[in-house]
Amino acid sequence: MSVNHRKSPNLPPPASEVGIVVWIKKNLFSTYANSVMSLAAMGLILLLLPPLLDWAFFSATWSGTTRADCNEEGACWIFIANRMDQIMYGFYPAELHWRPNLTGLLLIALMIPLFIKAFKYKNWLGAFILLIYPFVAYFLIHGGSFGLEVVSTNKWGGLMLTLILSAVGIVASLPLGILLALGRRSKMPMFRSVCIVYIEFWRGIPLITVLFMASVMLPLFFPEGSNFDKLLRALIGITMFQSAYMAEVVRGGLQAIPKGQYEASEALGLNYPKSMGLIILPQALKLVIPGIVNTFIALFKDTTLVLIIGLFDLLAIINLALTDSEWLGFDDEGYVFAAFVFWVFCFAMSRYSIALEAKLHTGHKR
Amino acid sequence: MSAEHIIELKGVHKWYGDFHVLKDINITVQKGERIVICGPSGSGKSTTIRCINRLEEHQQGQIIVDGTELTGDLKHIEQIRKEVGMVFQHFNLFPHLTILENLSLAPIWVKNVAKAEAESIAMKYLERVKIPEQANKFPGQLSGGQQQRVAIARSLCMNPKVMLFDEPTSALDPEMISEVLDVMVELAEDGMTMICVTHEMGFAKKVANRVIFMDEGEIVEENEPNEFFNNPQNERTQLFLSQIIQH
């Protein structure tokens, strides 16, 4: 028989070897295979990074005004600087640039309190941004009232247009996608069928087709002479298309919620909208944040397709600049810059999604 | 006197497809009565109590709760769910909400109670189940026994006339069963009408007014606990009791 009457004390862990050399040994060269992979990765970095950095930064031309100022060694960013106005605003009249600027600043100013913990009226502010701000933005950018000169949508372009397309696409496709996902799981057969047909239809055709149809076919269905804005058509097309994808992402989240959650909210007397809005959707959406952000990122990049229907988004404006006879042959600079801008926005979305997941984590395992 | 009958099941039948899961169930529960339903798994005991708040639909017969008959009418269903609390085997707390939010959610959104008042009600019941200090934690941070006590408190916050328990201790580690049963015993002593599906025979002996034994979708035997345990009449009851008491 053995009885332990003493309580074992908690000992500190053994003083492990620390220091950078030990870390490298442990992590980079722990096994034969690991050493090979580490060396190969380092080799690749050494091979690719220096020439790229040299081209983009060290040998690049940063100041000057004309083509003659460019040196032959590296990138010539003067080209981008010269075109900056168009890249940002498209053909929006230069003397009115303050209007989109103000719209953007207003949005940033409105969003700052959302990131302040102590701010109490987040819901109200969020609702304001989603429901009221779009109209403010439209009146500011488009004009036409309060004495503001009208700037028609065919003059909108560049990064401004890209951001408008993706912001509207994102804000409209998420709620529509949620409704479609709920509809697809509905107990009402006719409603469910409508949702399934909608989702499968839009998911089954390429976005290019949607945009072509929106710009070429749609006007045929409207009476002669009625001018249905091209940008609006593209926005509707993108929203319809992306909401189908969003619906399937959200449905994945809904399916992962245990039946007990539905039963518990029913048993407490919550009706369908309340049970969905308060119990099921908050959990389901949180589960599929990576999928939702994935769709947002795809949407953001897909907005470049509007160039085929004659809208000049960021990429289309750069394409246009490349045909300028003054600046022929600066494709590298143009496309690298466009890629960089897209990457910055997409990476920001990706980081935000990770931060959001961490913030909403409540320590429950499933 | 039907005013005294808070729950009446009259000739209730239910099928899953062709499978006849409930066969002619008749149960009458008086105000303040504590009923324990037991039986082997698949006997229909959970299905029976889940019919009482319409988590399952019955296809024949009548279910009347506090004078309101359960039909497809949503108004009736909502009315009944307000008065019937339910505790589940797997707790089913809302993992994205704090304990306090779990408790105050239904009073706020179903009964339109002001937030501050709902929270003070919630704290009252958390104290009653002896875990007020957990109010601001999330369910995932609590032990199983604590979670189940929160689930009981959550139902009580709606001030129900009847409490349904669907195997409340079956998913718990052994050392946590008694803390949940203690809360249920206290509740019984306070006069709450309870219908409890459970295998805790000690609890049944201690608090039940009546024990109902179900097998294969029908009620086999119904008696007061002393008689039920010491002098079971039906062979199936005898077999069941001998099997669970053996160890």
Helix/strand layout:
The complex is a heterodimer of chains A (366) and B (247).
Chain A: H1 20-28, H2 32-58, H3 78-82, H4 84-89, H5 98-111, H6 122-131, H7 133-142, H8 158-184, H9 189-204, H10 207-221, H11 230-255, H12 259-267, H13 272-287, H14 289-302, E1 312-313, H15 314-322, H16 331-360
Helix pairs in contact in A: 5-7, 8-9, 8-11, 8-14, 8-15, 9-11, 10-11, 11-13, 11-14, 12-13, 14-16, 15-16
Chain B: E1 5-16, E2 19-30, E3 34-38, H1 45-52, E4 60-65, E5 68-69, H2 74-83, E6 84-87, H3 99-110, H4 115-128, H5 144-156, E7 162-166, H6 174-189, E8 193-197, H7 201-207, E9 210-215, E10 218-223, H8 225-230, H9 235-245
Tell me how many strands of chain B there are: 10
- The backbone outline of chain B, from C-alpha atoms, is globular
DSSP helical segment count of chain A: 16
Main sheet makeup of chain B = 6 strands, mixed
Q: What is the level 1 CATH name of the domain at 157-361 in chain A?
A: Mainly Alpha
Structure explained in plain terms:
The complex is a heterodimer of chains A (366) and B (247). By secondary structure, chain A is mostly helical. Chain A is built from 16 helices and one strand. Chain A has helices spanning 20-28, 32-58, 78-82, 84-89, 98-111, 122-131, 133-142, 158-184, 189-204, 207-221, 230-255, 259-267, 272-287, 289-302, 314-322, 331-360, and one strand at residues 312-313. Chain A starts with 19 loop residues before the first helix and ends in a 6-residue tail after the last helix. The chains are: A mainly alpha (366), B alpha/beta (247). The interface between A and B is medium-sized, with 24 and 28 residues.
Q: Features of this protein?
A:
heterodimer; A: 366 residues; 1% strand; B: alpha/beta; six-stranded mixed beta sheet; four-stranded antiparallel beta sheet
